[in-house]
Amino acid sequence: MLHRHALPATSEPVRLTEPEPECGPDDAA
Fold first, then answer.
1. How many angstroms separate the Cα of 4 from the Cα of each of 9, 17, 27?
2. Using CA of residue 17, residue 19, residue 11, residue 3, what is the dihedral sign?
3. pLDDT at 17
4. Cα separation of 12 and 15, whole Å?
5. Amino acid 3: pLDDT
6. What's the angle, vertex CA 3, arms to CA 24 and CA 28, rounded to 5?
7. What is the pLDDT of residue 13?
8. 1-29 pLDDT per residue, tens
9. What is the residue-wise DSSP string for 1-29?
């Protein structure tokens, strides 16, 4: 889940616009 980042739900739209390395494995998980 995205909560494993210790980041709020605000990180969802951010990771969608910014293809970060953390967003990769997180999107699959």
1. 11, 20, 12
2. positive
3. 58
4. 5
5. 53
6. 25
7. 59
8. 555 666 665 656 555 555 666 655 655 55
9. -GGGGT--TTHHHHHHHS--TTHHHHHH-
